[in-house]
């Protein structure tokens, strides 16, 4: 039984690690460079997004809002979007099984390599929501910084 359990755990970790290729920021040319890689980005307010870019330019992932003084914090929400070249657009509907803020946010932006060779996504966003006086749109800016991930070594290699 212990051998079977060890095999299943090893299989899980090896397939999880191999599901996406690792990405190195210095290899970034445009968003197609991320195809097949799952990447994590953090904005200046501590919110975290993880995106997966498909070869057709579609983007999927999750967004965890950590901005102080806002609702729908601390749990992942579905993120969907598109990329073309160095530009990206994505959106989040702020409703999941944990919370519903009855709002949506859309971001549009571009990738850049900043001072110190830091890979960033510079965006503008629009948040649409219903207030007591009716529909409202709030706007702002976010800069997301790429966070390299440490890929766990497969248990099969140990």
TrEMBL record:
The keyword Secreted applies. It holds the Pfam family Avidin. Keywords: Biotin, Disulfide bond, Glycoprotein, Secreted, Signal. The keyword Manganese does not apply. Residues 1-19 form the signal peptide. It is found in: Secreted. PROSITE patterns: AVIDIN_2 (PS51326). SUPFAM superfamilies: Avidin/streptavidin. Its main location: secreted. Gene3D superfamilies: Avidin-like. PANTHER family: AVID PROTEIN-RELATED (PTHR34399:SF3), AVIDIN-RELATED (PTHR34399). Belongs to the avidin/streptavidin family. This is Avidin family protein.
């Amino acid at each position: 039984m212990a051998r079977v359990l060890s095999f299943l755990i090893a299989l899980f970790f090896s397939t999880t690690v191999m599901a996406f290729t690792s990405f190195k920021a210095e290899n970034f040319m445009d968003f197609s460079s991320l195809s097949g890689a799952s990447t994590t980005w953090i904005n200046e307010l501590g919110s975290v997004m993880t995106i997966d870019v498909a070869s057709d330019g579609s983007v999927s992932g999750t967004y965890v809002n950590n901005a102080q003084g806002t609702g729908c914090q601390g749990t992942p929400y579905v993120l969907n979007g598109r990329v073309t070249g160095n530009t990206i657009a994505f959106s989040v509907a702020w409703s999941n099984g944990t919370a519903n803020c009855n709002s949506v946010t859309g971001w549009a932006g571009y990738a850049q390599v900043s001072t110190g060779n830091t890979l960033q996504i510079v965006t503008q966003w629009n948040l649409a929501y219903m207030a007591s006086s009716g529909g409202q749109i709030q706007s702002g800016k976010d800069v997301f910084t790429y966070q390299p991930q440490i890929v766990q070594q497969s248990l099969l290699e140990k």
